[in-house]
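Notes continue from the previous slide.

Worked example: a multi-chain complex. Inputs as given:
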Amino acid sequence: MNWAIIHYGELALKGKNRPAFEKQLRRNIRRALGGLTAEIERSHGRFLLRWEGDTPWSEVRSRLEVVFGTAYFAPARVVDLDLQQLKRAVAELAGERSFSSFRIRTRRAEKRFLLTSQETDRDLGAWVQTMTPARVDLTHPEVTFYVEVLPGRAVLYAEKIPGPGGLPVGASGRVVSLVSGGIDSPVAAWLLMKRGCRAVILHFHSYPFTSLASQEKVLELTQLLNAYQFSSRLYLVPFADAQREILVSAPEPYRVILYRRLMLRMAQAIAHRERAKALVTGDNLGQVASQTLINLATSEAAVSLPVLRPLIGMDKQEIVALAQRLGTYEVSIRPHDDCCQLFMPRHPATRASPAEIDSAEGTLDMEALVRRGLNQATILRFDASGSHELENPWREEARLPAEPSVVPSEEQAS
Ligand code: ATP
Ligand code: MG
């Protein structure tokens, strides 16, 4: 029989939220395991996972490693509450590894077991010493044999694998995450997913004025992010027409902020459709001209939803390290022409006040630009089996002729 024990972060589990948290976590573990035939039982604030067939632990492990909300997990042995069975199990665990020092660490969730934790530690420790020359070391052992006494059975394991922490995706609601194809924004989306949000991915592109590269990159980035939330939606919104209008009617220094304000407005409209409660960007204070405090404030004044910027206090190296860890870095550093560089002013304003922006926007019909962008959006759904296009709910509403799809075909993408 194949077993694993999964512990979740107890600290986050106070009070009324606990059952919902556990339910969501269990559902996510199930989705992470895909087609594997498995049972997940809850017992005293942990899960016991049992799976059938010959799927190796390495495979199960890599699937569990992407489930937010898990503190640590381990391949385990599960036996009856019987000292002989405990001894047999700990002997098996000991036989699978070589070590020169060890300890036994027993925890009792079930107090009716006839031995106390200390007695169990001592008995099993003495038993292991009859089999190996290894010495007992209570402070820095090479191996710890964990014994958890639960109602009716005990769980034994020797290797704790850290989970990704955080909260189960879906436990904190939805956000719309603006993802550019650069290094930062996929990390920002991932950090909100780590806090239990389901992230709807939104990308603006200037195709056909730029190549398909940014869209291809965002398709790959969405696939990578999708591993953590099991199904995702990606909105690809054409931005070039709007950029051209801003280009001709707004003063050059304000262009970048106007692009940002328009992006956030479109993101907010999508958030309303998706019942998302916040927008997420990869902004980082002071990296570029558009990211001064005053410009961040002027940008987000265009919308009423909160704009979350989880990278705001991070150094570039910290962001890069996270991107490498989640596998997006290699995709992000591939060159693409950024939609905002396309019509980039030579000297972007670093201090654009709301009043200046209002007058710069005065001649533009922002509502119409939002409608037109959404009307031309391509919406894709990702899950374990790949991606497919969804219907655009705005297409009819706006009553404008639809543009041909800009999603790269398989030929173009390869
Ligand atoms: P990134 O590495 O994510 O591109 P950045 O440090 O290069 O970020 P900017 O390019 O100024 O910063 O963009 C700031 C944020 O605005 C991005 O992190 C992203 O959330 C959003 N954004 C910018 N361009 C786009 C785009 N084409 N599509 C979607 N979101 C975008
Ligand atoms: Mg960028």
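Summary box: The pocket of magnesium ion (ligand 2) is lined by residues 180, 182, 338 (CB under 6 Å). Confidence is low (pLDDT under 50) at residues 408-414.
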